[in-house]
Amino acid sequence: MNVLELAKKHVQLKKVATTQGGEWQGPCPGCGGDDRFHVWPEKNEGEGSYWCRQCEKSGDGIQFLRDFEGISFHEACARLGKDMPQKPDYTTPRQRTPDRYTPQEKDGPNTLWREKAWAFVTWAYEQVFDHPEVIDYLARRGINETIIGRYGLGWNGGKDGKDLFRSRESWGQPKLKNEIRRDKPLWLPRGMVIPAMRGGEVVRVRIRRPDPIPFGSRYYVVPGSGMGTLVVAAESRVFVVTEAELDAYMLAGRMDETIGAVGLGSASTKPDKKTMGILKAAHFILVALDADDAGYKATEWWTHEFPDGKIWPVPRGKDPGEAYEAGVNIKEWIMAGVPPGVRG
Questions:
Q1: Rounded to an integer, what distance in angstroms lies between the CA atom of residue 206 and that of residue 219?
Q2: What ranges in 141-183 are assigned the alpha helix state H?
Q3: Please, is 200 exposed, middle or buried when counting C-beta atoms within 10 Å of its C-beta (0-12, 13-18, 19+)?
Q4: Domain 230-342 carries which CATH code?
Q5: Domain residue spans in the chain?
Q6: Class in CATH terms, 3-80
Q7: What's the pLDDT score for residue 296?
Q8: 111-221: CATH superfamily
Q9: Where is 116: in which H helix or E strand?
């Protein structure tokens, strides 16, 4: 099934170009908007590709199902009738050099948004301990109550079990009209609240929505959020680069922030200018992207930009959270990848 067909099950798209097989635009199934989501149905040998210029999610049909329907890599392959890819040999010399990368500055949210986000994150943190099923889920992924408190993870149960809605202006966002020309509210769906902090302030709020998801993506970024890369324990000498922000919190938390972590949010995301500076100044980095097709594809860029780093996939499972759940000792796994001479 083509990416365009998958996308049209979630949002309405309009054709905006006919060159190179055509281009469609519309709202992002994850972060909304009006025309920030782009689909090119003829790319990837006719299987299509997508990209959102706000939340920066991108990829093929498999990644679309993972991003916007919340299913696993294995399930997405089965849904599309694709064989599982073979894990690449990272010792094989690269066949080409990726294009030169120029990191970009990422704007942060405005003052009013940060104030509202702080209040929302604080409230959600106070709620999380009233939901043992959330605590149990996080514990299975290696996130204990100490880590929850350190990074302000929380739970939005909504009101009477329903999602919250606020005026966009109250969060410092411009007015938008919906399809029937009414003011579009700011949506705060029920789910796990995952804040990103910089300088002691909330700069992004990501919400992991619970099952069942009637529409859209598993992960939702609150409008107005800054899209800079999540860096945990930025003063560290050694960093682990992972895909999920929850995994970044788990890794840094279990290392007591003696080793930092970077959470990309998506395998295809590249570090912003500030994060690139932090990583280039680091003594060593381990790249632990998800053990799936998107993670394998992204590895070439990381080996080019950080040739002295190490590709360090989890020994079991797809990602660090699954590895922990499968019984991997996270500290031992990380320290086994760090050269003795650079250990903190």
A1: 7
A2: 145-151
A3: exposed
A4: 3.40.1360.10
A5: 3-80, 111-221, 230-342
A6: alpha beta
A7: 87
A8: DNA primase, catalytic core, N-terminal domain (3.90.980.10)
A9: helix 111-128
